[in-house]
Amino acid sequence: MDFQPTQDQRDLRTGVRDLLAGRYGREELRASVDRAAATGRSVDRELWRELGAAGFFSLRLPEDEGGVGLGLPEAVLVFEEAGRALLPGPLVATHLAAGLVAGAAEGEAVVTAFDLEGPLVAHLGEADAVLGADGEPVEVYAGDPVRSADPLTPLARVLLPREPVTAGAYRDAGALLTAALQLGSALRTVELAVQYAKEREQFGQPIGAFQAVKHLCAQMLVRAEVARTAVYAAAVTADPAEVAAAKLLADEAAVRNARDCLQVHGGMGFTWEADVHLHLKRAWVRAEQWRTAAQAEEALAAELLSAVE
C-alpha cells in the first residue's frame, strides 16, 4: 500500500500553508495572544469565515450537501498545517459539526465540544454551539472561567454534569484530527530549533555545530517523523487502534519536541517574546483533548488482548 500523498493532496497542503502564512503569521499570532489576554476570546470571526470559505470545515462534507467531498487523509493534511501555524479556536469541533450545526461548514458558527475529561470546555464563551458526548449539539450553561495553560485556549467550567465522551467514529475522528494538529506543531518546533541552532553562535561558531545540539535536533526529527507515519496511516485505515496509537505518538512528539526546542533556545526560549512556549502550552492542552495518553494506552491494550484471544 502506498502511503505517499498524491499530487492533489500535496497541492492542498501547500495551498493551506500559503493561506495561513499570509493570513495568520507571527504578527497575527502575537496579536491573538494580546487580544485573548484582554478579552478572554481567541477566535477571529473574520478569519473563521475565511477558513469556511476555503473549505476548511466542509472538507469532508459530501458535495451534494455543499461540502468538498474529501476524506480523512486530506483533512489530516489540512489540520497539520493549522497545527504548524498554532491557529487557535475549536477547529476540530467546528469541522465535525459541518452538516449538524447551521453555519459551521461556512465558518459562520464557532462550535466547541466536550472533548476534555471532567467539566471543562474550551472556547465555551465564544462558541455558538456545543457538541455533546454523542456528537450532537447540546444546551450548556457556562460557569466561571478557568485559568488555562495556553493563553489561546480559554477554558470554562460547565454548571451541569455530563456523561464522558463515548467511543466511536465521532471520537476517533476528533482524536485523529487533534493528532494532526499536534504533528504540525511537532514539525514546526523542529524547524524552529534547527533555524536557531544555525543562527546562534557560541565560542565563535553556530551552536548547531556542537554534538549535543545535533543529537537533540535529530531526536526531535525522528520523533516527529514517527508520529507523521502513524497519523498518516491512521488517516488511511481509520482503524480505532491505529488512531489511538497516532494520538499517543503525536502528543508525545508535540510536547517533547517543544521542550527540546526550548532547550536549544536556552534562556531565550523561556522569554515571553519567543514563540516556543506557545507550542508547548498548546501541546499540553491538546494532549488532554479527545483521547488522553491513558485512554490511548487502554485502547491499544484492549486491541492486543482481543487479537490474542
Tags for this model:
55% helix; mainly alpha; 309 residues; 10 helices; three-stranded antiparallel β-sheet; three-stranded mixed β-sheet
The major sheet is characterized as:
3 strands, mixed
* Computed Rg: 19 Å
What percent of residues are in strands?
5-15%
Unreliable residue runs: none
Q: End-to-end span in angstroms? A: 28 Å
Count of DSSP H/I helices: 10
Specify the structural class: mainly alpha
Principal-axes geometry comes out as globular
Along the chain, the helix and strand elements come as: HHHHHEEEEEEHEEHHHH
What's the overall average pLDDT, rounded?
91
Structural notes for this entry:
With 309 residues, the protein is mainly alpha-helical. It contains ten helices and eight strands. Strand 7 (201-202) and strand 8 form a beta hairpin. Helix 4 (72-85) packs antiparallel against helix 7 (211-237). It is globular, with a radius of gyration of 19 Å. The model has no long low-confidence stretch (mean pLDDT 91).
Secondary-structure map:
Blueprint: H1 7-23, H2 26-39, H3 45-53, H4 72-85, H5 91-96, E1 111-113, E2 120-122, E3 129-131, E4 137-138, E5 142-146, E6 155-158, H6 169-199, E7 201-202, E8 205-206, H7 211-237, H8 240-265, H9 276-286, H10 293-308
Parallel strand pairs: 1-3
Antiparallel strand pairs: 2-6, 3-4, 5-6, 7-8
Helix pairs in contact: 1-4, 4-6, 4-7, 6-7, 6-8, 6-9, 7-8, 8-9, 8-10
